[in-house]
Specification:
Bound molecules: adenosine-5'-diphosphate, magnesium ion
Number of domains: 2
CATH class of the largest domain: Alpha Beta
Number of strands: 15
CATH topology of the largest domain: Rossmann fold
CATH architecture of the largest domain: 3-Layer(aba) Sandwich
Strand order of the largest sheet: 3-4-2-1-5-6
Helix content: 25-40%
Largest sheet: 6 strands, parallel
Order of helices and strands: EHEHEHEHHEHEHEHEHHEEEEHEHEHEHH
Strand content: 15-25%
Length: 396
């Protein structure tokens, strides 16, 4: 069923109305409690501005981090300040997400006002999808807008529970864009279609690998999870981390890929070191990794092979860094892959929080068709699962 979007509403549904926007403003903070990286705030602005331009009173809500009850260090205060800068207007932060104070602030709003509710997760009712908490959130507004793709895989009060308590429910511009792009990866696309998968754990990605198996022409596999695939193929990986209890998953997947004649490219060399903080690093063929050293990035020969495949593709989905890219000495492989993906003229989509960060570090974000703001949510979407936050919007 087609989702109704805020842009499908007649302006009269927004003018003078109280519009609740569930945004995903869960951004990393600096130790001094500033916003370390504002991509998600920037991505939330178009929907808020859309409603403001039509004379709405906009109530923005989000969670931040994983608070345990009221946790002042996880106040949305710095986020509200950044949002105000981006919107060029005042953003009033409530003391709490619900309660008399917040209710009064919302009741006094005028068209064009923006109120930011304090961190939703200061109340256990948010994650518990509590009925009473949902009802109080729902009482704020005449229109509910879900623009928080990063939270769409969670059935929480602000993504699911409050919806029956608001008369009109639509998706925001960002959520719509996320669904449109990610849906394309599961439908008809231009071939060759390659998936580039990396990151930490096989178990995190096996659902994605499985659902893409019938769609792609091949997989490039790097990152720590490649070690498990290599071992499953009987290739030695030195002291690199292997998920021994996931070897069977890797073996079964390789078997299915072979039956379908889907190509799987695995690393042939690696940047190695005894540990993450080692003073020096080496480059070795996988069979020659010195005792006590582990693969922490793909090596130059692997990178060249991967880049060659990627640059000949017409559609690329990327999830998961090729190495420990947070450390400059292990970032080359991941950054080269990011540049290669950015260089092709076809459809390029990046999902996953760390991969999205790597694209920004590589400075090629503008050349990617779509960088998903959802980490876990984008993976669940590509796995083909129904996301509760989207399903709730589809209910009439
Ligand atoms: P995403 O957030 O894009 O889905 P993941 O969370 O699955 O990606 O994986 C990212 C993490 O994997 C990063 O913290 C990175 O340091 C780690 N990683 C990647 N390659 C390796 C490796 N070879 N050894 C150890 N950790 C790795
Ligand atoms: Mg991650």
């Amino acid at each position: 069923m087609a989702l109704r979007c805020i842009s499908d509403l007649p302006d009269s549904d927004l003018a003078g109305k109280r519009v609740f926007v569930r945004a995903d403003l869960n951004v990393p903070l600096t130790p001094a409690r500033g916003v370390a990286e504002d991509n998600r705030i920037v991505a939330s602005v178009p929907t808020i501005e859309y409603a403001l331009k039509r004379g709405a009173k906009v109530i923005v809500a989000s969670h931040l981090g994983r608070p345990d009850g009221v946790t002042p260090a996880l106040s949305l205060e710095p986020v509200g300040a950044r949002l105000a800068e981006l919107l060029g207007r005042e953003v009033m932060l409530t003391d709490e997400a619900i309660g008399d104070g917040a209710r009064k602030v919302v009741a006094d709003m005028r068209p064009g006002d923006v109120v930011l509710l304090e961190n939703l997760r200061f109340f256990a009712g948010e994650e518990a999808n509590d009925e009473g908490f949902s009802r109080q959130l729902g009482a704020y507004a005449e229109v509910y807008v879900n623009d928080a793709f990063g939270c769409a895989h969670r059935a929480h009060a602000s993504t699911v529970g409050m919806l029956p308590h608001v008369p009109l429910r639509v998706c925001g511009l960002l959520l719509k864009r996320e669904i449109e792009f990610l849906t394309r990866l599961l439908g008809q696309v231009a071939h060759p279609y390659w998936a580039v998968i990396g990151g930490a754990k096989v178990s995190d990605k096996i659902g994605v690998l499985d659902n893409l198996l019938s769609r792609v022409d091949g997989f490039v596999i790097g990152g720590a999870m490649a070690n498990t695939f290599l071992k499953a193929r009987g290739i030695a990986v030195g002291s690199s981390r292997v998920e021994e209890n996931k070897l069977h998953l890797a073996r079964e997947f390789l078997q299915r890929a072979q039956e379908r004649k889907i190509e799987i490219l695995l690393p042939v060399d690696a940047v190695t070191a005894p540990g993450l903080d080692a003073a020096s690093t080496g480059v070795h063929k996988l069979s020659d990794i010195p005792a006590g050293e582990m693969a922490l990035d793909i090596g130059p020969e692997t990178t060249a092979g991967f880049v060659d495949r990627i640059t000949r593709a017409k559609t690329v989905f990327w999830n998961g860094p090729m190495g420990v890219f947070e450390k400059p000495q292990f970032a080359d492989g991941t950054l080269a892959i990011a540049r290669a993906i950015a260089s092709i003229s076809g459809l390029t989509i990046v999902g996953g929080g760390d991969s999205a960060a790597a694209v920004h570090v590589a400075g090629v974000a503008k050349k990617i068709s779509h960088i998903s703001t959802g980490g876990g949510a984008s993976l669940e979407f590509i796995e083909g699962r129904t996301l509760p936050g989207i399903a709730a919007l589809e209910k009439v």
